[in-house]
Amino acid sequence: PGDQEAGELGLAAVPGRQAAFRQGLAAAVHYARAVGCPRIHLMAGRVPLGTDRAAVAGEMETTFIENLRYAADLLAQEDMIGLLEPINNRITDPRYYLNTPHQVAAILEKVGRPNLKLQLDLFHCQIMDGNLSRNLETYFPLLGHIQIAQVPGRHEPDSPGELNFPYIFELLESLGYTGYVGCEYAPKGDTLEGLGWLRSYWDSRGLQHGGTSTAAQ
């Protein structure tokens, strides 16, 4: 993430911070190797304070592409995948550089490395664009990781909000998604209580707690 006390949230697209990006990436790879994690979120970073987004967009994209190619080559040596996550700039972070899956897809096409993928947080995607079914279908070939939270409260999937998660989970299954679904939300209570929705979902699908089919048993 860079120097968070100085207001940084990633470095990959921030001009002049290439050396710090490479240093942070090396540390991330070290930790990922130690815990057996094959995916690393390459955070783009924020538009620098006091600058106009449109005025620096070209320089930030050039920096981003350069850093991503470096990262992809390094990660390939470790058999790891780099992930790019768009974060909404309407509510969560007005200055974050990467905001939509469309922007990620365009960047990935320019970078041209197969071990870079889209990290799609449905909370951010709903706020920026909605149209989740079509977006999941369109960008599924680029998908490397999914994160979930209800909108607008960013709480558990079964909390009041805009998103129908049982439908979304079935859509992901029908598309052939076999990766993890990250619970990127703030529990309304404690963590264990906040996972009650998952037990209820398993029950509704005829699964034992743990996601195992009762029929298979």
From TrEMBL:
Domain of life: Eukaryota
Positions of the catalytic residues: 85, 184
Domain Xylose isomerase-like TIM barrel: from-to ranges: 10-200
Keywords assigned: Isomerase
GO molecular function: hydroxypyruvate isomerase activity
E.C. code: 5.3.1.22
Classification via InterPro entries: HyI-like, Sugar_Epim/Isomerase, Xyl_isomerase-like_sf, Xyl_isomerase-like_TIM-brl
PANTHER family named in the record: HYDROXYPYRUVATE ISOMERASE-RELATED, ISOMERASE
Name of the protein in its database record: Putative hydroxypyruvate isomerase
